[in-house]
Design a protein that fits this description.
Rossmann fold
Amino acid sequence: MRVLLIEDYKPLVRALKRGLEEECFAVDTAYDGEVGAYKAQTVNYDVIILDLMLPKEDGLSLLQRWRRANIKSPVLVLTARGGIEDKVRCFDLGADDYLTKPFGIAELYARLRGLIRRSHQVKNPIVKAHDLEIHTSERTVKRAGNAIHLTPREYALLEFLAFHRGEVVSRSMIWEHLYDEDDQNTSNVVDVYIRYLRKKIDRGCDLPLIITRWGEGYMFRSDLALDQTSPAAATNKRLSPIAVPRRL
């Protein structure tokens, strides 16, 4: 998932960027409100981490402007200002969460994961599809009870597809959410990682979960599609009664 970090203290930015990347996030940064405003308006971020005390334009002004412009990215305010009035003001202006400095890094990661799940209407931290389980808090994956080792990039791709299951997502959409602004790859690299992921997720299984939609992109099977392709559904279809006209 792709994060925008708007913070003017560069040592903190470097530390957070490194840690977030280890947690499978793609991270863009801005050191002042003006650059942060531009990036938030040009990229559909999965979550924005926002400091309040920024050069050029403060965080409260940014937050108010984004919500008026219908920018829907979840915003986590990360600030040294811990007063009740500050928190109330931020929530009233459209913030989704609020964390004061100093903070525990594990708590920050947990709050970010929660915001992203909420934005995709995923309440359970364990995402299940057929016999696949994705533990989003631990970033572990199992299929049919067997653990599957994924690289950070493969895991990020699987999570993105699972959060959009039943929807066709284009290569450019996937690339935009999995790669940060400094990455030199193109959207064609998505096909390579889809192939890697299929080898680990679908190989040897009767039911593939990752579907190619030629000319459109990729789709993770929805629950409805899984039900329609299940053995029980196939049996019911074969055994469905045939209407016989009554004799006159």
